[in-house]
Specification:
248 residues; alpha+beta; Ribosomal Protein S8, Chain: A, domain 1; GMP Synthetase, Chain A, domain 3; 2 domains; six-stranded antiparallel beta sheet; three-stranded mixed beta sheet; 9 strands; disordered N terminus
Length: 248
């Protein structure tokens, strides 16, 4: 994907911060890049928040959720991806997001990091989970994870998304993954999963036969509700078509 880059400069007080925005394969997702002021204190880690309840461990995410039209947020080391609702426009939403980012990072800088982007509790939990998983990994799973980390994640993150390893079924050769950020709700996510990720894993690791996406419980509920509403709309449209036209 060729991203369209846009640079915005915002000044508050004496600090001058620069942000870049990059389009993603998902028209409802925009990647905000902060090359001068890292967003997360650790590299190669992302956190995704789909609601204010999930964002209780991120003061920055909570501030962004106050902006009308923000659907979900993913934080990375030097970037932030925002998914918006369909009925909102980036021309008005993007400046608001950058303004919140600028004010928050400026305040965090003045207070020497005492206003964290994410809580230390969340960072500790993520690190402990990672270490616990690695201890039980087989050699084959370690190979799969290494390929994801070195060849797949960088490309996904360039598009404003991320990918999380969720498991491997050795009997069926199925790798379970979770797409995040811009890639999660992108119309091309299935192509990315099957045509890109699955093909690469199968090419380098012969034990891999298939890749499947894992959804969070709330995402599964939302998808089922969307399918239900879509069926209702189709049914109504069919009934209207079958009705006889009114006579004069």
């Amino acid at each position: 994907m060729i991203s369209r880059w846009h640079r915005a400069t915002l000044q508050i007080g004496r600090r001058l911060l620069h942000f870049k925005t990059a389009s993603t394969p998902n028209e409802n997702a925009l990647k905000f890049i902060s090359p001068e002021s890292p967003i997360l204190p650790v590299a190669n880690t992302t956190f995704e928040f789909n609601s204010t309840l999930q964002a209780i461990h991120s003061p920055l995410a909570l501030q962004l959720f106050k902006i009308p039209g923000v659907k979900s947020i993913m934080l990375g080391h030097d970037f932030l991806t925002v998914n918006k609702l369909d009925n909102h426009d980036w021309n008005s939403l993007s400046p608001e997001v950058m303004d919140v980012m600028n004010k928050f990072l400026d305040k965090a800088g003045e207070n020497s990091g005492k206003v964290p982007v994410v809580t230390q509790e969340l960072l500790n939990k993520a690190e402990s989970e990672r270490l616990a998983e690695d201890e039980d990994d087989s050699e084959l799973v370690l190979m799969i994870k290494e390929l994801i980390e070195t060849r797949i994640r960088p490309a996904i993150q360039d598009d404003g998304g991320d990918i999380e390893y969720k498991g491997f079924d050795e009997e069926t050769g199925t790798v379970f993954l979770k797409l995040q950020g811009a890639c999660k709700s992108c119309s091309a996510s299935e192509d990315t999963l099957k045509g890109g990720i699955e093909s690469m894993l199968m090419h380098y690791i012969e034990e891999v036969k298939e890749v499947q996406q894992i959804l969070d419980p709330e995402e599964e509920i939302a998808m089922k509700e969307f399918e239900r509403l879509e069926q209702q709309l189709k049914s109504r449209a069919s009934n209207v078509t079958d009705e006889a036209p009114p006579s004069l």
